[in-house]
Queue: 4 jobs
Job 1
Amino acid sequence: MHLAFPLAASTAALLALAGCGDPQPLYVDGGYVRLNANPSGPSAAYFTIHGGDKPVVLRDITTDAAVRLEMHESKTQNGMASMEEIDTVDVPAGEKITFAPGGKHIMLWQINPQAVAAGKMTFTFIFSNGDRILADAVIENPDGSASAAGNTTAANAAADEHAGH
Ligand SMILES: [Cu+2]
């Protein structure tokens, strides 16, 4: 019975494949904060939301490390750039929603100086399915360098993260 071993092996492979068919998780990554060059002005934060196996709605984002936070979307209409506050964001199943310069972003007022010194802060994303997802963001200076003094590892990690998306 030469076939006995190959059959057993392919059964194992099929089981492994079935494992990959588990529900696709909803998650958030690629977070970074770009500090405003004007210290009294608002800073912006960007993320990527990866939709799970069912559509959800992003209902809110919170953080302990800033006094005020709003979700905004930048638009260009008739050559004029403007931004407006948005209350919710639809996250279709399996789709990637990117918060990026020129589009959706988080606006932050009065970021905790200790968070800036540490070079990172944590956000909580609250979804319509009840998920509360924590996501870290690297805090960058207006020029894109890491806000934490001498923290080149964080800067490199952030750069890699951007390259990957
Ligand atoms: Cu804004």
Job 2
Amino acid sequence: MAQQDPTENPIQSMLTLQEIAMAARQSMDPMMWDFVSGGAESETTLRRNRQALDRLAFRPRVLRDVLDVDPSTTFLGCDLRIPVFFAPVGLMQLIWPDGGIANQIRAAESFGILTMKSCINEPEIEDVAALSPGRIAFQLYVRGDADWVDAQAQRAVDAGCQGFCLCVDLARYGRRERDLLNGFVLRRYSPIDESTALAQLDWATVDRLRTKLDMPMIIKGIATAEDARLAVEHGVDVIYVSNHGGRQLDHNRGSIQMLGEIVEAVGDKAEVVIDGGFMRGTDILKAIALGARAVGLGKLQVWALAAGGEAALVRCLEILEEEIITAMGLLGVTSLGQLDTSYITAVEPVSEPGITSSYPRFE
Ligand SMILES: Cc1cc2nc3c(=O)[nH]c(=O)nc-3n(C[C@H](O)[C@H](O)[C@H](O)COP(=O)(O)O)c2cc1C
């Protein structure tokens, strides 16, 4: 077979996730790279997301038949080809003006995962829902009174979304010092003023929405067993463990450090998903072994979009799938359900955690 000419289709010729991250770095304006990739204040939470994942090693089992490995699962009643979904990421129209978040939605549809669409994405939910019926959840930042919130929820219902996600870790906008020092002001770009505090948002809001919404409800930004338990008591269907990728509260725990106590608190009363620092198939399998149903991609998703729109997003998922299948085979499992905490142990990390430290050839 003739060797593929990489100049013909540079995206298809990418073999590794580090190439996607590097292509994003090269194509993005440095201020935009900082906005997407940076975190709050000292970026301790951001780095801890990575460090906490790097502090986990596998305990593989051998001499098992791993000819047929199946990395699929279900989440929100939807089949996922790999245990991954696109986390809500706002303002994608600034990264890829041709279609913005529609690129993620099309890529998720063609590959076979689910997109959580942020309320601060263009196009609006009404204009993209038909691109991927049954594979979109709608994420809301509460920025209005009860009537406004209810109207947003109704939009998700009318658009036929699979779930309604309330993001609750943005009671204040995190101090992202890269953006402050770069003079990167979102108000200049967006009709939404990201610097304002949320409107009234408490458990009563959750209760009100729960009675009105006839669809699974997801709370994004749960960081403790206490709040996970409360969420279950308030009828929440999906606990989304997250520290907003280190963009909000600094000196938080790494998100994978929160997972164990939350999975234990929730039991089988809700699904648990997670995001924060996931850059590799092995990262994703660590979360599954600790009890998560699926993992959200934040920065990696945005980098793939910046690297080449829909095609690069699909390529990113294909590479992740290869990584996941390879690692499952090497762990001695053929389905995700076989993974449990016995496959994981604590170790010392081998490298300094950083934004791209998962990619040692990143330049
Ligand atoms: C550029 C960018 C925009 C984001 N916008 C939103 C948003 O609109 N709504 C939301 O709930 N989370 C938002 N997040 C947070 C992500 O949903 C997710 O929690 C986080 O990125 C996961 O960490 P990771 O980037 O290390 O994967 C955003 C993250 C990034 C990087």
Job 3
Amino acid sequence: MVCPKCHSGNVNTTVVSDVKMKNKHGAGYWIFIGWWWELIKFVVFGWIYLIIKLVVGKKKKIVTNQITMAVCQNCGYSWKI
Ligand SMILES: [Zn+2]
């Protein structure tokens, strides 16, 4: 493998786990929108949501991606493979 920046062959590869937390709504959201929006959502989409939940299953809150990163030992440039 060759560095795209300095064209050096001295490149290390490392596997990085990229953990992303899914967005959580803040307190302001729940005070102004959350309570009635969730209520409407439950009344209108609640039964659809329950069916989807039964079919699809519980969603994971933490998403983990395995990313292979290449790091150039010559210039320090890193990039995804
Ligand atoms: Zn380089």
Job 4
Amino acid sequence: MPTPRYGIWLIGARGGVSTTTILGLSALRHQLTPEVGLVSALPAFAKLPLVDWDQFVVGGHEIRPSTLATEAEMLHQQSRVFNEQTLAACREELDAIDQNIRPGVLWNVGETIRELATDDSSASLNPRDSIAQIQADLNDFRDRHQLTDVVVVNLASTEPPLDEALWPTTWQAAESLLEQPSCPLPASSLYAIAALDLGMPYVNFTPSLGATPGGIDELARERATCHAGRDAKTGETLLKSVLAPMFAGRNLEVMSWVGHNIFGNLDGKVLDDPVNKRAKVESKDHLLEKMLGYSPQTLVSIEHIQSLADWKTAWDHIHFQGFLQTPMTMQITWQGCDSLLAAPLVLDLVRFTLAARARGETGALAFLGSFFKSPLGTENQAFFEQTQVLEAWARESS
Ligand SMILES: NC(=O)c1ccc[n+]([C@@H]2O[C@H](COP(=O)([O-])OP(=O)(O)OC[C@H]3O[C@@H](n4cnc5c(N)ncnc54)[C@H](O)[C@@H]3O)[C@@H](O)[C@H]2O)c1
């Protein structure tokens, strides 16, 4: 019997995280890199039936023309990441994957994202037609490459947030929204609906709405498939979810927590629009209350500083109170390369999601909470507790 093959379908397929994920996968296949940074390569997951790097086929949707090789070269030049040898060895594979990338849809993505699209032929599609186009592309990809399953991962630019009062709480309500000419659901939710309706799992790496509403989770359960999200926890917020439980465990009262983030990539440019930025700031800011049990004063700022390219500096200033009401301060500076922090987590999420599929799990995958700033299906935000949940799931699943 031939070895089964699995699809990874990336929405935003030529963005920084997608390009790095694709290059990283290719480098793993060529054994040009160790598995450092990959959670799924840890000994705790050695007994899980995980899909091998060689079994994956990649495709996706994108709204900018470009090519993967151009995007990888740009990251290399501007952000001093990857080496020449890796770029050269993976070039052929990047060119082949470009052939699997199709034009994306633009429903309710906001002005800033719409301006990124040079070919806006899909801009006129209504929600139902957008879903039909996405499904035709997904079916074609699965059939052409004879894939056992396809995991759809949202790595597209962050959309403006949608007022929670408008989220459909049932699948029936979502379906009637799709018929309305003023349907408020954004493209990320249309991609989610298209994938889940075909029984394909969906992972939302971004703060965009995606499959978050109860009505879309209901669709996933009805179609016996699963989803995970949202907004991957890769840097400053990861630190928050490690440090906040420490302050709580020592009964030190956090009075204020300020996080200032500066970076210069395309994601940062989109987040420079105050409307898109709101979705990200909400996602980075809400978790402290859950871990501390009270709400200190908080401030999260995100600024686009072009010269920094993909390198993010996050400065956190934590003002806290100890015994005899003595005020103290912790300051941390985090300097990380955004796409390099994110890419291995994309591969981990795909592998764990496929393992959950094999176990017949449906709906929101709560055991993946450690990967997200706003985890679906669980209220737990503390990183080490979330890691224990993941490891316990792996023990049960092995
Ligand atoms: N460490 C991280 O990099 C990190 C962490 C958490 C979340 N995220 C989120 O992941 C996403 C990707 O980050 P990035 O740095 O790669 O951003 P990016 O701007 O480099 O890439 C986004 C890509 O999505 C494309 N796109 C936008 N709207 C689309 C649509 N409707 N359909 C298809 N393609 C579309 C854009 O053209 C672009 O190529 C962002 O939403 C970001 O906030 C990133």
